[in-house]
């Protein structure tokens, strides 16, 4: 029959449209301009930040004669761990020659109670502010927030006097109290915002169920707030561990935290500058916050995001 | 208002202010034993606030609340003998369904075997036995709301409070759970106070509806009364979907007979039951779209012809928009009789089914 000779349109293409054109996902090229710029920038920035760390690690593993050659970027010819051992156990600060170890344990004794105390108080504060709108809550909150904006330096001397009067000046517990107080505004804000972002009906349901202030806090709110606790712990651990100012002002040489002791080792003016020991001591001091970040990075981001949603 | 004898819940002169803003104003309502009351109104009318006051979650500014004859105005929520169901379910996310149900009982220090007995009963009534060991995150919306109802159920209370419990569900589930709540009420015979902005829920569930606006109860009556004889224009317009037709015009009297006149349209009111002796003046005539007959010939006290403006098919029936006295007027017709745009059609109705409102105050005439 004649009409059979008429060519049929391709099965997938409509009549009049180009059937041979692009179809399916758009192809992506590995070496596209976009990728080169993106990864190029990332690599340059990463190098920029990692280079000092590289120099520190490399230097700390060299002996002093090798350092004096001046090739700071070259890897060590002879690897030695002696500077690390010396930094930890026998570097001298003034009359003491037992290295950073004493400062490390001082820092632990300062950090752990400060973190626990400040978070315990701040979380209850935040919970009370967010859920129990007590009389004067707004005023209290404003005062706390103002407290977060006052520079610490203003309060150093008054606190010295207060601590002296109550007999805690120079002791570790004095410093713990100072850290707990100064952590309060930002932590309370953090917890208040997190608890405010929780559905209010949950709180109401718990009240109808008969739970009181502490019952709701411990049985309903706490189990739901792991992310924000992780954020608070990281903020406090790194903040208190890295603190230098309060450490140097409120403690005595035998209770100096690690940071102050590091400064005293690195900045000692007598004798030869032992660059390898200084590098090792610095890395040792920075290790704790670094480890904390590496372990809890994911939870940290999640918690920050959760706490930041609502003002 | 009329007071009931031995009411299950009684609200007396309740006021609530947030600073200078008055949310509830000297509100009075009595709820009878075993009655299902629905608080209905647009958002911001104070219906949820009233419920929270009854629950004890908000402190009142003035007035008293009685539950089962006991003055509970200053009582804690747990001591009021109420169970509450929330819109967002408010299940404790870290607890299993069973722990969610038992939380209140454990807080109250009730013996273990009694807790188990009550949970078993609630789970059976609500058919959530297979879900008891699951966490709320592993439940669907309907299941979650069932658990939330269960949490109120195990408390063995006199009064159930529902705060828009179905608003977070999709249309199909909402219809299902609506029926279940109705069944639950007929089974338990508890007093229930139910807040919603959904008029279908209000009409289907309530023994009596309290229509609220601006913190004031506009009308408290059986659903049919509210639907057929709204006390003011707000209630008339709020209930009913599609909404009631309103024609602006004047109330006139000639030859001893009352008429409603708007432009060339004259509606005789011989069959209309006035609330009180009418006076001539500006008025609003309201009639529901389903009470208007369509192309059904004469025999109605009022007939007219009008042009079709828009036709809205809604499946089971069709809404026809007309121009009557130069004002919008809708008629509900079965889908088989759908006219075309620009057709001229005839309509008729009996003013007996209409509502007349004062133009200024909006109250029923």
UniProtKB/TrEMBL annotation, chain A:
Residues 104-296 form the ABC transmembrane type-1 domain. One of its GO terms (cellular component) is plasma membrane. It is a multi-pass membrane protein. The keyword Nucleotide-binding does not apply. PROSITE patterns: ABC_TM1. It is found in: Cell membrane. InterPro entries: MetI-like, MetI-like_sf. Keywords: Membrane, Transmembrane, Transmembrane helix, Transport. Gene3D superfamilies: MetI-like. The keyword Zinc does not apply. It holds the Pfam family BPD_transp_1. Its main location: membrane. The chain crosses the membrane at residues 36-57, 110-128, 140-163, 175-195, 216-241, 277-295. One of its GO terms (biological process) is transmembrane transport. Belongs to the binding-protein-dependent transport system permease family. This is Sugar ABC transporter permease.
From TrEMBL, chain B:
PANTHER family: ABC TRANSPORTER ATP-BINDING PROTEIN, MALTODEXTRIN IMPORT ATP-BINDING PROTEIN MSMX. Belongs to the ABC transporter superfamily. The keyword Nucleotide-binding applies. Residues 9-239 form the ABC transporter domain. It is a peripheral membrane protein. Its main location: membrane. The keyword Oxidoreductase does not apply. Signal peptide: none annotated. Keywords: ATP-binding, Nucleotide-binding, Transport. It comes from Mesorhizobium wenxiniae. This is ABC transporter ATP-binding protein. PROSITE patterns: ABC_TRANSPORTER_1, ABC_TRANSPORTER_2. The lineage of its organism: Bacteria, Pseudomonadati, Pseudomonadota, Alphaproteobacteria, Hyphomicrobiales.
């Amino acid at each position: 029959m004649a009409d059979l000779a008429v060519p049929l349109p391709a099965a997938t293409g409509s009549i009049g449209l180009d059937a041979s054109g692009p179809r399916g996902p758009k192809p992506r090229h590995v070496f596209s301009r976009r990728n080169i710029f993106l990864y190029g920038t990332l690599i340059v920035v990463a190098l920029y930040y990692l280079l000092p760390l590289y120099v520190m690690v490399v230097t700390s593993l060299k002996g002093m004669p090798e350092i004096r050659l001046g090739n700071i970027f070259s890897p060590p010819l002879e690897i030695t761990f002696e500077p690390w051992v010396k930094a930890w156990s026998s570097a001298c600060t003034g009359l003491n020659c037992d290295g950073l170890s004493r400062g490390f344990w001082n820092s632990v004794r300062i950090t752990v109670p400060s973190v626990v105390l400040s978070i315990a108080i701040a979380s209850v504060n935040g919970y009370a502010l967010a859920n129990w709108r007590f009389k004067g809550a707004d005023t209290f909150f404003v005062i706390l927030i103002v407290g977060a904006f006052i520079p610490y330096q203003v309060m150093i001397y008054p606190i010295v006097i207060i601590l002296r009067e109550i007999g805690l000046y120079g002791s570790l517990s004095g410093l713990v109290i100072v850290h707990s107080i100064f952590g309060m505004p930002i932590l309370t804000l953090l917890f208040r915002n997190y608890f405010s972002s929780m559905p209010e009906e949950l709180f109401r349901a718990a009240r109808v169920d008969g739970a009181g202030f502490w019952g709701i806090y411990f049985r309903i709110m706490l189990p739901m707030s792991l992310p924000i606790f992780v954020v608070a712990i990281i903020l406090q651990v790194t903040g208190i561990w890295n603190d230098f100012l309060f450490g140097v002002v409120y403690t005595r040489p035998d209770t100096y935290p690690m940071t102050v002791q590091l400064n005293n080792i690195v900045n000692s003016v007598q004798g030869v500058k032992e660059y390898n020991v200084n590098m090792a001591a610095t890395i040792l001091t920075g290790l704790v916050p670094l480890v904390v970040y590496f372990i809890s990075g994911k939870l940290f981001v999640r918690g920050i995001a959760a706490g930041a949603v609502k003002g | 208002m009329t007071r009931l004898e031995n009411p299950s819940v009684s609200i007396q002169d309740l006021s609530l202010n947030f600073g200078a803003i008055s949310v509830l104003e000297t509100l009075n309502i009595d709820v009878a034993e075993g009655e299902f009351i629905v608080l209905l109104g647009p958002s911001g009318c104070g219906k949820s606030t009233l419920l929270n006051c009854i629950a004890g979650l908000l402190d009142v500014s003035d007035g008293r609340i009685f539950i089962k004859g006991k003055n509970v105005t200053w009582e804690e929520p747990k001591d009021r003998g109420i169970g509450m169901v929330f819109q967002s379910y408010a299940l404790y996310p870290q607890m299993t369904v069973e722990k969610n149900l038992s939380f209140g009982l454990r807080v109250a220090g009730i013996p273990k075997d009694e807790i188990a007995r009550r949970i078993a009963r609630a789970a059976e009534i609500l058919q959530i036995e297979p879900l008891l060991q699951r966490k709320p995150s592993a439940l669907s919306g309907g299941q979650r709301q069932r658990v939330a109802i269960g949490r109120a159920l195990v408390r063995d209370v006199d009064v159930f409070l529902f705060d828009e419990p179905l608003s977070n569900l999709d249309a199909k589930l909402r219809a299902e759970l609506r029926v279940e709540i109705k069944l639950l009420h007929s089974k338990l015979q508890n007093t229930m106070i139910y807040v919603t902005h959904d008029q279908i829920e209000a009409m289907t569930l309530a023994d009596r509806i309290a229509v609220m606006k601006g913190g004031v109860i506009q009308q408290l009556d059986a659903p049919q009364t509210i639907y057929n004889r709204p006390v003011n224009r707000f209630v008339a317009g709020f209930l009913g979907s599609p909404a009631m037709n309103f024609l602006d015009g004047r109330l006139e009297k000639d030859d001893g007979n009352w008429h409603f006149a708007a432009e060339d349209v004259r509606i005789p009111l011989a069959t209309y039951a006035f609330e009180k002796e009418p006076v001539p003046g500006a008025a609003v005539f309201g009639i529901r779209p389903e009470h208007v007959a369509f192309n059904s010939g004469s025999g109605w006290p009022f007939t007219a012809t009008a042009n079709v403006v828009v036709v809205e098919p809604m499946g089971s029936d069709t809404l026809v928009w007309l121009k009557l006295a130069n004002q919008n007027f809708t008629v509900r017709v079965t889908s088989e009789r759908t006219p075309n745009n620009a057709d001229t059609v005839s309509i008729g109705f009996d003013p007996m089914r209409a509502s007349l409102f004062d133009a200024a105050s909006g109250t029923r005439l």
